[in-house]
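Board notes (copied after class):
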Amino acid sequence: MNNQVVVKMLKGMLEVIILQMLDAEPMHGYGVISRIRKKFGVYFGPSTIYPMLTKMEKQGYVKSQWNMDNERPRKVYSVTDSGRALLAESCTGLQIIIKPLALVPA
């Protein structure tokens, strides 16, 4: 598949992808960046991820807490109940979109 197509699709789904990752495990912004790169082979840098996390926090989908256990304090994000509800709605929406596509003959 064309890498530009993958990047465009991931960018459109980035909020859902982040919610799914944080639902599995709370993590800091750099952890989100690293996980996306490892899982999808696409790099979204700090200038994309951190503003999105801030926006999602303002919308109430994620919450943050400072982790002071390391030498360098890190803001760790986790999903809220509203974020889980959005994630569930998004997954249902994706299933509605993808199901008819699976029935189309190649």
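Comment from the instructor: The chain is about 65% helix and 15% strand. The first helix runs from residue 3 to 12.
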